[in-house]
Write a structure and sequence with these properties.
The protein has 223 residues and is mostly beta strands. Helices cover 12% and strands 52% of the residues. The chain has an eight-stranded antiparallel β-barrel.
Length: 223
């Protein structure tokens, strides 16, 4: 085999191996460097902070200081991320606040006297949202907001009001974060503010003034 033939053969093999390597799929970046995934589902326990509204208290014949201020509940939600960049994503989705419930029984006026009535404050809400997300696949923070509907009621537990004929509009806005300690499971938290429109009175239901409710929630996210 001549030297020129051996040289040409080696050159051909180098070209073929280079072409083969170029044709292979690029190696994906490590998971930590990948962008936010296409979707996430949330379930979180909630702690709501209610105001002691004088109009709500007057409607049920109690003092504003008698109204409960802290309620527990549950919120579930889902979000899609149609626009995903290396450290940024645009999300669309929403949450359902299944219920934030607070209850308080008025203490006796005198020692060993009878207790007063029990008062309940409840909030449910449907909250479509658009979000701006900052981070990568296994951890990111977000800001989000939207306009939805809410049902806010303060009533005596033994004399509940009728359900409203229509739900008032409610603006929601806030932010939070998610950290994926497992491949599909994350810890998440959210701080959200609800601005609820006034509710006009009905035949079997008093009117409620516009109000704002702060809701902190923490739980898990699944992707």
């Amino acid at each position: 085999m001549s030297r020129s033939f051996r040289t040409a053969l080696c050159a051909g093999l180098l070209v073929l191996s280079s072409a083969s390597a170029f044709a292979q799929d690029p190696v994906p970046p490590p998971l930590l460097d990948q962008p936010i995934g296409p979707f996430v589902v949330d379930a979180r326990g909630t702690l709501a902070r209610f105001k002691q509204d004088p109009l709500s208290a007057a409607a049920i014949g109690v003092q504003p200081a008698d109204l409960p201020t802290r309620g527990l509940g549950l919120v579930v939600g889902a979000h899609l991320y149609p626009v995903r960049k290396r450290i940024f994503a645009l999300g669309v989705g929403g949450e359902i606040l299944l219920r934030a419930h607070a209850s308080r029984t008025i203490p006796p006026v005198v020692e060993d006297g009878p207790e007063g009535p029990a008062i309940a404050t409840n909030l449910t809400a449907i909250s479509p949202q658009v979000s701006l997300n900052f981070g990568k696949r296994d951890g990111w923070s977000y800001l989000s907001g939207g306009i939805g509907w809410a049902n806010f009621t303060t009533e005596l537990e033994d004399a509940p009001f009728e359900d409203p004929e229509s739900l008032p509009r409610a603006i929601n806005y806030g932010g939070g974060a998610r950290w994926f300690a497992k491949k599909h499971l994350a810890f998440s938290f959210d701080l959200r503010f609800y601005k609820i429109n006034a509710q006009p009175p009905a035949v079997l239901r008093p009117g409620f003034a516009s109000t704002s409710v702060t809701v902190f929630s923490a739980g898990v996210s699944v992707r």
